[in-house]
UniProtKB/TrEMBL annotation, chain A:
Keywords: Electron transport, Heme, Iron, Membrane, Metal-binding, Respiratory chain, Transmembrane, Transmembrane helix, Transport. It is a multi-pass membrane protein. The keyword rRNA processing does not apply. The keyword Signal does not apply. One of its GO terms (biological process) is aerobic respiration. InterPro entries: Cyt_c_oxase-like_su1_dom (IPR023616), Cyt_c_oxase-like_su1_sf (IPR036927), Cyt_C_Oxase_1 (IPR000883), Cyt_c_Oxase_su1_BS (IPR023615). It comes from the Bacteria. PANTHER family: CYTOCHROME C OXIDASE SUBUNIT 1. This is Cytochrome c oxidase subunit I. The chain crosses the membrane at residues 61-81, 108-131, 143-165, 185-206, 227-251, 276-295, 307-327, 339-358, 379-401, 413-436, 448-470, 490-518. SUPFAM superfamilies: Cytochrome c oxidase subunit I-like. Belongs to the heme-copper respiratory oxidase family.
Automatic annotation (TrEMBL), chain B:
The chain crosses the membrane at residues 41-60, 72-91, 159-187, 208-227. This is Putative cytochrome c oxidase subunit 3. GO terms for molecular function: cytochrome-c oxidase activity; oxidoreductase activity. GO terms for biological process: aerobic electron transport chain. Its main location: membrane. It is a multi-pass membrane protein. It is found in: Cell membrane; Membrane. Its EC number is 1.9.3.1. Belongs to the cytochrome c oxidase subunit 3 family. Residues 1-229 form the Heme-copper oxidase subunit III family profile domain. It comes from Limnoglobus roseus. Pfam families: COX3. Keywords: Membrane, Oxidoreductase, Transmembrane, Transmembrane helix. The lineage of its organism: Bacteria, Pseudomonadati, Planctomycetota, Planctomycetia, Gemmatales.
Automatic annotation (TrEMBL), chain C:
It comes from the Bacteria. Its main location: membrane. It comes from Limnoglobus roseus. It is a multi-pass membrane protein. This is Oxidase. It is found in: Cell membrane.
């Protein structure tokens, strides 16, 4: 196609990008002497340089700080719930306070923490670096989506503080539309706004993966974290708008006192549940997929092996993204939806466990005959694999129509989803945080304390939620402040576990903060990992790569001897000569 | 932009799905509700919106060719068409309001008969009474529909109207956003932003959104307005 | 101004000129014709068939609009993928939800 004379055709992005990379004379940033003199943290100063930044790395940090605070808030609410459950008649809270406490815990943890945590922080920070780009496809949109998210989150927190919310995280009408006297409207608006931000972030990541990959970064060479983020973004884009619509219809009904879920004029409250779970089941995969992505990166590094079955893992992410949309009815087995539909959903639910299982098998196979070392990130990964497997398997109990009739809305469900979300996502997040902290800050944290924290979290977690399988199986229903005295032992065990867990989560706050001031310099590649992100300095320079990287190998080539080049001859990097390995994994510099 | 439109499709998909579910349950009520709407304004609006989709493609063409007067002209034309659409829409809402076709919890008492034919006083919503009036004024088949309905069914027509207001309301919101974008492009055009002709791509991307708003209307038109029975004699503004 | 050469416009790659005036006019006329048809159908009483006929017309209109006005026919792979994905996932939403409403009255026992 010859371009018309008036309008020069837009050149494909990769070519245009190359224009940006005028040949550099500075040495490549792979030397291990210490942090690059100019890096993304120190190249500009002052509040405004952070609040107006379009640098994806800084935006990642912008997410990190409020997310930590939100996690703390959600944790405090959880603490209240657990303390209250120490005695069968409620130890500390009034009835409505109890409702507000568990709702605050659920909503904050889901909407304000688990959904944005890895996409917001690690996704923002590392997806562009991993594909070899200078930034996201739309840097300004990225900043906008942070503001939208932060605004929505503030809205939500305000709604919780002023008057609270007592509908549970599921907002079921007609309770939420007619009877609840709490801030359903504001909270709904908060969910709507943060959802919008989540859509924008998803758009950005998809566009980045499609259009910003460095030369040679084929789909088959993308790190699996990027694949997972890609699948997550697809889910975000496809599912979130339906939640937005459900919440809007609910808000309309609440404002006008009359609406389409209102049974008195012939409406059907179940319809809300359909729309809600169309989003919210896929949303649990929005939460877990990025975590699974992180696991791939960490597990290969600490067993010093290539991932077992790259393609299977990559496609299982996409598989989860698709099949995840076919099973939402398993949350509604007992709601009055058609019984035959329930059967179909039950069968499809068995199906969705397959891609998750594929991943678990691949991770275990990756460990097999690896040279495993047990640094903190790896401890979290091992915790993840064990706990997530338990969570996933108990999901099957719940997915089977017959057994769910017994287990629905009991502590068994609570234990199930905490095993997947805390044991899974929370551990994956800790693994990711500990794995990438040296890269993000350039500092190394205490080895001893971090390993201790991992163990404390694991012990605390198991003590909290294993008893709930038992009490749930014996029929203890969820969301009640009172319970029969025979369950008290289990509840006390849970509360004790929650306390230990709490200590575990606070520990990283201290030693990670301490590392910023007292930690030794991490160097570019403290874990001797092979990914592209480890070939640049820590913390990275403002534009990540001083030269356009040309990728010649897959992301996990731990078998290649060149990986040792990093340890033995860190300074002998060649500059500018095309085709010469710069450092390790076959990333060559070009221009 | 296409990726963003996917989310819009699913957003409207949510409400369309709800609409379908209820239409299956309550076909009669939906027919009656649609019959009570104003088909004339809706038809005019359909053509207005289609024309505006046409003018915006002309605007793209002009930008591509570097014809700046043409670009501004077509952008203005698009904005005018969109605004006229909104004016008509406002007139229509006002008409509905005057006829009392607004769902609410206000109740009133009517004379009616119970199952055994005994005369009773029944508490029904004001909306149901108004709906009865509107349909009876339209005479012919519309009146026949109304006559066949029980009071409970008339009450349920409120669900149709909830859909009518929320779907058209969301559509109007999207139109307002679209008009904002168009005005912005017009200002840019005025400032000479589109001098380098390859920047026509900005208008093209924005036009996708505008076309999408049109697309939504293309489906709302048969689903909301044309689901009932209309006759040509009773057209009015 | 000077930076616009360097900055890649990545949101939509388009190597083809936009539709000609004649082309757009033709598309518009087709759409208007279909709209007339939709209106005609709206004013006649076809009974239960009406909704299907009018939806069919709307679908044709929608396809013409997306393929020609929205230039889907020149879209790259990603564009087609997104368009198809949007339709497919909306279909899934409808599939299960509507199935529920159609089968709820059947009992298994
Ligand atoms: C391995 C596949 C999985 C299966 C088969 C499965 C199955 C189920 C089923 C059937 C329920 C409904 C239980 C009931 O309400 O009676 C449920 C609830 C839940 N699951 Fe899963 N699940 C799986 C994985 C996950 C993952 C990975 C997450 C999150 C990261 C998750 C989070 C949840 C949550 C939050 C609920 C409770 C929702 C509520 O009612 O509040 N599940 N799961
Ligand atoms: Cu689920």
């Amino acid at each position: 196609m010859t371009p018309a004379t008036h309008a020069p055709a837009i050149t494909p992005s990769t070519q245009v990008l190359e224009l940006d990379y005028t040949p550099q004379t500075a040495p490549p940033v792979t030397d291990l002497d210490g942090p690059p003199a100019v890096n993304y943290l120190n190249h500009a100063h002052g509040w405004l340089s952070w609040l107006l930044t379009v640098d994806h790395k800084r935006i990642g940090i912008l997410y990190l700080i409020p997310l930590t605070v939100f996690f703390l808030c959600g944790g405090i609410a959880a603490g209240l719930v657990r303390l209250n459950l120490l005695t069968p008649t409620g130890a500390i809270l009034e009835l409505d306070q109890y409702n507000k406490a568990f709702t605050a815990h659920g909503t904050i943890m889901l909407f304000l923490f688990l959904i944005p945590v890895i996409p917001g922080i690690l996704g923002n920070f590392f997806v562009p670096i991993m594909v070899g780009a200078k930034d996201m496809a739309f840097p300004k949109l990225n900043l906008l989506s942070w503001y939208v998210w932060f605004g929505g989150a503030m809205f939500f927190i305000a709604a919780l503080l002023i008057g609270g919310l007592d509908t549970g995280w599921t907002f079921y009408p007609p309770y939420s539309s007619k009877y609840s006297h709490t801030n359903v409207l504001f909270a709904g608006l908060g969910v709507f706004i943060t959802g919008f931000s989540s859509i924008l972030t998803g758009l950005n990541i998809i566009a980045t993966v499609h259009k910003m990959r460095a030369p040679g970064m084929t789909w088959g060479r993308l790190p699996l974290f990027v694949w997972a983020m890609y699948a997550t973004s697809v889910i975000q884009i496809l599912a979130t708008p339906v939640l937005a619509m459900a919440v809007s219809l609910l808000a309309t009904e609440r404002i006008f006192g009359i609406g389409i879920f209102d049974p008195t004029i012939g409406g059907d409250p179940l319809l809300f549940q359909h729309l809600f779970w169309y989003y919210s089941h896929p949303a649990v995969y929005i939460m877990i997929l990025p975590g699974m992505g992180v696991i791939n990166e960490v597990i290969t590094c600490f067993s010093r092996k290539n991932i077992f079955g790259y393609k299977a893992v990559a496609w299982s992410s996409v598989g989860i993204a698709v099949v995840g949309f076919l099973v939402w009815g398993h949350h509604m087995f007992l709601s009055g939806q058609g019984i035959y539909l329930g059967m179909v959903f039950s069968v499809l639910t068995m199906l969705v466990a397959v891609p998750s299982a594929v991943k678990v098998f691949n991770w275990v196979a990756t460990l097999y005959k690896g040279q495993i070392t047990y640094e903190a990130p790896m401890l979290f990964v091992i915790g993840f694999i064990v706990l997530f497997t338990i969570g996933g398997l108990t999901g099957l109990f719940l997915g089977i129509l017959g057994s769910d009739i017994h287990l629905h809305d009991t502590y068994f469900v609570i234990a199930h989803f905490h095993f997947t979300m805390v044991g899974g996502m929370m551990f994956a997040w800790q693994a990711g945080l500990h794995f990438y902290w040296p890269k993000m800050t350039g500092k190394m944290y205490s080895d001893f304390w971090s390993r201790l924290a991992a163990v404390v979290m694991l012990v605390g977690f198991s003590l909290t939620f294993l008893p709930q399988f038992v009490s749930g199986y014996h029929g203890l229903p969820r969301r009640y402040p009172y319970y029969p005295a025979e369950f008290q032992l289990w509840q006390i065990l849970s509360t004790a576990g929650a306390t230990i867990q709490g200590i575990g989560y606070v520990m990283p706050v201290f030693y990670l903060t301490a590392s910023l001031f007292f930690g030794r310099d991490a160097g570019a590649n403290p874990w001797r990992a092979t990914g592209l992100e480890w070939q640049i300095g820590s913390p990275p320079t403002p534009h990540n790569f001083d030269e356009l990287p040309i990728v010649t190998h897959g992301p996990y080539e731990y078998a290649l001897p060149s990986r040792y080049a990093l340890e033995t001859e860190p300074h002998h990097t060649t500059n500018g000569t095309n085709g010469h390995a710069v450092a390790g994994n076959g990333v060559t510099s070009g221009h | 932009m296409w990726l963003f439109l996917v989310t819009e499709v699913l957003f409207f998909g949510g409400v369309l799905c709800a609409y379908t579910a209820y239409r299956i349950w309550y076909p009669k009520e939906f027919e009656a509700g649609s019959t009570a709407l104003n088909p004339l304004i809706a038809t005019i609006n359909t053509f207005l919106l289609l024309s505006s989709s046409f003018t915006i493609t002309l605007a793209i063409r002009s930008a591509y060719k570097g014809e700046h007067a043409g670009l501004r002209l077509w952008l203005v034309a698009t904005i005018v068409l969109g605004t006229v659409f909104l004016c008509f829409k406002a007139r229509e809402y006002y008409g509905d309001y005057e006829e009392g076709l607004v769902p609410s919890q206000q109740k009133t008492l009517v004379d009616t008969v119970d199952e055994s034919g005994k005369p009773i006083l029944k508490e029904v919503s004001v909306f149901a009474v108004n709906l009865k009036h509107v349909l009876e004024e339209k005479e012919g088949k519309a009146k026949a529909i109304s006559d066949k309905m029980t009071w409970n069914e008339r009450e349920r027509v409120q669900i149709f109207f909830m859909f009518y207001y929320s779907m058209t309301g969301l559509h109007v919101l999207h139109m307002i956003v679209g008009l904002g974008l168009l005005v912005w492009q017009l200002i840019l055009a005025q400032m000479g932003f589109f001098r380098p002709t390859e920047r026509y791509i900005y208008i093209e991307v924005m036009s996708l959104y505008w076309h999408f708003v049109d697309l939504v209307w293309i489906f709302l038109f048969p689903l909301l307005y044309m689901a009932g029975i209309h006759s040509v004699e009773h057209l009015h503004f | 101004m000077s930076d616009h050469v360097q900055k890649p416009i990545i949101f939509e790659e388009d190597h083809l000129p936009p539709a000609t005036i004649g082309g757009s006019t033709l598309t518009f006329l087709i759409l208007a014709g279909l709209a007339c048809m939709a209106t005609l159908i709206g004013f006649t009483d076809l009974g239960p068939a009406k909704v299907w006929v009018s939806l069919a017309v709307a679908c044709v209109q929608g396809i013409v609009l997306t393929v020609f006005f929205m230039d889907l026919r020149h879209g790259d792979k990603l564009t087609w993928l997104t368009a198809v994905a949007a339709l497919f996932w909306t279909f899934l939403l409808f599939l299960f939800t509507i199935t529920d409403y159609l089968t709820r009255q059947f009992f298994a026992f």
